[in-house]
Known about the structure:
The protein is an alpha/beta fold. The protein has a domain at 94-157. The protein has helices spanning 46-54, 76-80, 99-106, 113-126, 142-154, 172-185, 198-204, 222-227, 229-237; strands spanning 8-17, 20-30, 35-39, 61-66, 69-70, 84-87, 160-164, 190-194, 207-212, 215-220. The strands form two sheets. The protein has a six-stranded mixed beta sheet, with helices on both faces. β7 (160-164), α6 (172-185) and β8 form a beta-alpha-beta unit. α3 (99-106) packs across α4 (113-126), α3 packs parallel to α5 and α6 (172-185) runs parallel beside α7. It is globular.
Amino acid sequence: MTGATPLLETTSLTRRFGGVIAVHEVDFQVGDGELRCLIGPNGAGKSTFFRCLSGQLRPTAGRIRLAGHDITGDGPHAIARRGVAIKTQVPALFDGLSVLENVRLATWRCGSRAARRRRTEDVLATIGLARQASRPAGELPHGQRQWLELGLVIAGDPRLMLLDEPTAGMTRSEVAETADLVRRLAEGRTIIAVEHDIQFIRMVADSVTVFHQGQILTEGTVDAVLRDRAVRDVYLGHGRDAGAC
Length: 245
């Protein structure tokens, strides 16, 4: 991202676990309205970096700024109050409640009862689960559970969404539907997603940041990054076809 003031920025962000440096002096920027994917091999540091952004981990050194505000070391609740919503790998749903009730609970900060009702209806329509509104969340198949949690994430109309492997465990058709949903959710907000599924990344990402050994290896458009020989060597495997992953 160049030119405009970034929505989210890290400066020399570092996270150590004892003598192990998981994230090392990372300078990162994402612009308002951008959909950025973070990729890299296992152990590259992307998940640790993500948890620092979301407040799940406190950085050892460096700074994090959101819309010009220093949020370094803030916890998840404080970061959420600044308009950041987080989707973890495992859906955090109330399985004994209906789809409607799950969404309704997530709209508690949306104003009056009428406003919350309208927001609940809008969310159900957006995630394609309006016809499943009365069904217990615990009875939903895996893909729909993921979509319901995406609904809970957008219920409060966040400015920034942090998604941790949103397509994990999905079928090919579910991945395609999730990609369509995420692109629609990106309209009017910023999304940062940690993801392994290359086809999903091709379908959604405006840009990609590649992590390797706790640092940023490269950044750019999806096509440019996947053509990069260094990326293919460390992430996709030397000599493999990026499109087949």
